[in-house]
């Protein structure tokens, strides 16, 4: 299991909490098929929520200035993510599209994906996650602008409550020139073509 941000909670306590939920749901946690479930769930939580152990700012700290004067938009699209709704602890599955216009410095594209992962692997609200990704890129890289679009399918809506499948939520956050210049924003949105099939 990943290191907990709260060392006062032990693995054994986490497993006991899972046994309590199993009993509350009407199950017997001592039956054969469920004996290892508490351990497995605790370990899964360590993976699903390992973003609490990451500092997204660190991923953006190393940049490159030798880019031959490149000053046009950089877009990394279709970054898949898995998160969990903080209201029901249900999965959110989707994609993030990141665009920015460098101001003399660029960052390795894998670092952008790592920033997404660090925020996604926490309990989240999609709107908040969208803002967090945009704001940390703007604050650390100081580009001319940043555009973030997030698509997400929320299992808290499809597997409970209203039970509506095939619904996705789209959120965006535009900073700098992406916010101020409609042409820049339109170019970014053309690049990512949210909701449309791409060849």
TrEMBL record:
Pathway in which this enzyme or protein is active: Cofactor biosynthesis; 7,8-dihydroneopterin triphosphate biosynthesis; 7,8-dihydroneopterin triphosphate from GTP: step 1/1
Transmembrane stretches, start-end: none
Enzyme Commission number(s) of this protein: 3.5.4.16
Keywords: GTP-binding, Hydrolase, Metal-binding, Nucleotide-binding, One-carbon metabolism, Zinc
Keyword field contains Iron: no
GO molecular function: GTP binding; GTP cyclohydrolase I activity; zinc ion binding
Subunit structure comment from the entry: Toroid-shaped homodecamer, composed of two pentamers of five dimers. Homopolymer.
Protein name according to UniProt: GTP cyclohydrolase 1
Gene name for this UniProt entry: folE
């Amino acid at each position: 299991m990943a290191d907990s941000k709260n060392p006062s909670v032990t693995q054994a306590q986490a497993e006991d909490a899972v046994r309590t939920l199993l009993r509350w749901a009407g199950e017997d946690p001592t039956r054969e098929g469920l004996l290892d479930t508490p351990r497995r769930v605790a370990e899964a939580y360590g993976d699903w929520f390992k973003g609490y152990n990451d500092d997204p700012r660190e991923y953006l700290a190393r940049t490159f200035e030798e880019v031959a004067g490149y000053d046009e938009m950089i877009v990394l699209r279709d970054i898949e993510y898995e998160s969990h709704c903080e209201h029901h602890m249900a999965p959110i599955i989707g994609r993030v599209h990141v665009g920015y216009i460098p101001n003399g410095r660029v960052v390795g594209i894998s670092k952008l994906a790592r920033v997404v992962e660090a925020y996604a692997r926490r309990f989240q609200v999609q709107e908040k996650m969208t803002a967090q990704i945009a704001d940390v890129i703007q604050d650390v890289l100081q580009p001319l602008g940043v555009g973030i679009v997030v698509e997400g399918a929320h299992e808290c809506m499809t597997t409970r409550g209203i039970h509506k499948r095939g619904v996705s939520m789209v959120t965006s956050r535009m900073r700098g020139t992406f916010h101020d210049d409609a042409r820049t924003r339109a170019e970014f949105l053309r690049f990512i073509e949210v909701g449309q099939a791409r060849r």
